[in-house]
Amino acid sequence: MLTGMPSLSHSEQEQAADRIRQLMENGMSSGEAIATVAAEIRETHKGDRVTVIFDDEDE
């Protein structure tokens, strides 16, 4: 499985973590919060440089 995520600055990573925590505090499950923030990041950074992550199953 390939997952493309934009390269984020340290500050952007902290903001994403804060957003995930906020969603979880409002009752969202951790998995759903992570997926939501990941989708928001992908949408916000369309066309930016992307980091490709390989799942162990693809090696």
From TrEMBL:
Residue stretches of biased makeup (Polar residues): 1-10
Residue ranges of the region described as Disordered: 1-21
Residue spans of biased composition, Basic and acidic residues class: 11-21
InterPro entries: UPF0181
Family the entry assigns: Belongs to the UPF0181 family.
Protein name: UPF0181 protein BV494_09385
